[in-house]
Design a protein that fits this description.
By secondary structure, the protein is mainly β. It contains no helices and eleven strands. It has a single domain, classed as Coagulation Factor XIII, Chain A, domain 1. The protein has strands at 10-17, 19-22, 28-31, 36-39, 44-56, 60-69, 76-79, 83-87, 93-105, 109-117, 120-131.
């Protein structure tokens, strides 16, 4: 595929969870999948959360970033460092795992995880923060 133009990959999955493990064979396990956080008081913090994103069916070198956006749809609450990866052919796949520690939430509401590829949003999905 030398000299071939890049082919944007597909986002095969994105998973929000408490922990991601990878065994000696490269097999991933996702623990504690969730879409809602409950808190008794605000502001509050969430100790740790992971986002795992699997890219496939593309060719070239790409940069991925995960952002957590506030309910105002504008303020960035947390974001990981941009991560570069290369897919050498359309049968290649790559999983990017982002870890977020001690994320501070000011109020209850609908927050958004935004997965970006080469600076462009690819998908947004909600995470609800609710009062207990």
């Amino acid at each position: 595929m030398t000299g071939q133009a890049a082919i944007l990959p597909d986002l095969q999955f994105t998973i929000l969870c408490d922990n991601v493990l990878k065994d000696e064979r490269g097999k991933f396990s996702f623990q504690g999948l969730f879409e809602t956080i409950s808190a008794t008081t605000f502001p509050c913090s969430h100790e740790v959360m992971f986002i795992a994103n699997r890219w496939c069916n593309g060719y070239g070198t790409f940069t991925q970033q995960t952002r957590l956006v506030a309910p105002d749809n504008d303020s960035i609450i947390a974001e990981d460092e941009p991560t570069s990866f290369t897919l050498t052919n359309t049968d290649s796949r790559h999983t990017v795992v982002a870890k977020f520690n001690n994320v501070m939430f000011q109020a209850q509401g609908k927050y958004w995880f935004e997965i970006r590829l080469n600076g462009n949003p690819m998908i947004r999905y909600p995470m609800h923060l609710m009062k207990k």
